[in-house]
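Limitations
The structure tokens in this dataset are predictions for the assembled complex, not deposited experimental models. Users should treat interface geometry with appropriate caution, especially where small molecules or nucleic acid strands are included. An illustrative entry is reproduced here so readers can see what is and is not provided.
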Amino acid sequence: MLTKGLPRGWIFGFAISFALTMMLTWSLVYLLVKGTGIWGINIPIGWGFAIINFVWWIGIGHAGTLISAVLLLFRQDWRTSINRFAEAMTLFAVACAGIFPLMHMGRPWLAYWMVPYPNTMAIWPQFRSALVWDVFAVSTYASVSLLFWYVGLVPDLATLRDRAQNKYSKFAFGVFALGWRNSARHWHRYHRAYLLLAALATPLVVSVHTIVGFDFATSLIPGWHNTMFPPYFVAGAVFSGFAMVATLSIPLRYIYNLQDFITERHLDNMGKVMLATGLMVAYGYVMEGFYAWYSANEYETYMQVNRMVGPYAPAYWALIFCNIIVPQLLWSHKCRTTPWILFLITLVISVGMWLERFVIVVTSLHRDFLPSSWDMYYPTAWDWMTYIGTIGLFFALLFIFIRILPMISLFEMRELVEQTTKAAEAVQSPENAGPDSPARRK
Amino acid sequence: MAQIFHPLTNVVSRATIFGALLMAAGALWLIYMITTSDYANQVSVVRAQPVDFSHEHHVSGLGLDCRYCHLSVENSAFAGVPATEICMNCHSQIWSDSPKLAPVRESFRTGMPLKWTRVNDLPDFVHFHHGIHIQKGIQCRTCHGDMEKMPLTWKAGTLHMRWCLDCHRSPEDHVGPRSAVFANSANPLVSTAEDFAEIEKYQVRKQTNCSACHY
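Predicted assembly:
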């Protein structure tokens, strides 16, 4: 996939996602000209699509960090064939996520006011506001994820530099390879740095979505003001993130014949993670209902009843169907290892997790404490264009990524081949150990 | 394998690691210095006016009271810019032929007001009230500087929000007796224990919430 010539499928896919990215650009420019009034937001539903999509994208990003950092620290070597593009996916998802709160500010050119810096106004950002915590959490997350991804790429960039055919790509890869010469000292430093970054990234898996959960939980809105939110959001994030990794890896392994690298074992493991986190999320839904009853608070109770039978009830029941009922299929080994079934389940989960954020944001806000301020939220065409546009941006970035960089870590696969070959030699005759077989034998 | 890069690249790349940090820090420092500079804020910069009016001559030289021209300063948000007729109270009699005053006479004849350039101009999203500050014993010169020493008019403060808040957060040296409001630099403000009591009474420090000015 890194050699000359562009496959027709790649051009087709990239063209569609690039067109959607242009639609995103258009809708954002129009937003800047007209203001946030073109969106469906109103008072009381001030958050709308912007926050729904922000949380959805940030959640998707979590799988990348979890796979890279946590599974690295736990020495789960099956992660090697999916970590690279999962990390790339994290970066692109965070880029998409960042657009929404920025644009939701209304005057994004003043976004730097969120950063504490010496200013002529003699005021600091409101450190008690979850919005400021978000700025720190998401920017830390984005920069650590970028560093982690890049540091992991350096040895591969050196390989690409050495194999590059023309001098421009040789130069470009050369600059980014930072003078990597494959020496033992380089490897020693590389492993140190990578482990340190993994240790740094590990708390981020939990912290970022905890902060996003705080955005809701620190308010006094019924349905948000809940101590369960941080862990419930983290579980939901990993759930949707693994769904997205599987959504992407299943077609990729077909198109590029990667069945030897992304094996049934990978699909099986991802299915198990989705099942586990899906059950945690299901527990969250049950607990929301329990709290509404046990709190004996009329607003909480009303909010829960309104979710179930109110005007947004179809969204609520669709969410229960997508996130609780459908993932139960993952108990079956056959469903986990049959790519097309798993693919469909992951799509359903992605939709379900989007619906979850929709239900949390909209149903909690639209019935305010005073009936006089009740209102309905209907997304406008601009809302949809922005949302679909970010999906386009995500895929456009992903297409560029799989075109110019190795989507499976080259050197880690080599290491794995080396280790498994040795291990195999130790226990059995060496004939079975082929260079492309490590994953297959697991 | 042929070398792609010149050996010098090693030095350059090491330098750029720290160079980039220095450049970024330097750029931020430069932006900060520019935004807070007198040049960017037009502090101590004389603005062109239709008539070269001298506060120095009229206040120090002739001893006019501020309120002779800025009529509404004690009661209104806006201090008031004098009407041409106020100028003509005197200038119909003295310097009545001066070419420098031709625009004033022209304005008086046609009824078209003089277009003075505002020197101390706050943005429209800030509500500042002159009256309340005068009533609570803030001297004119606290904000406007020594007007009686300005042959042409310039701004004495940046009018930044920090400039307002600095005074509101520590008003001790700025609140004085009401009788001293219009005093000039010959009678510098001396705050007494009574003034400190008044600061508490006026709740000067509390007027730092957003909606005190932005409403």
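Some entries come with short summary sentences. For this one: The first helix of chain A runs from residue 8 to 34.
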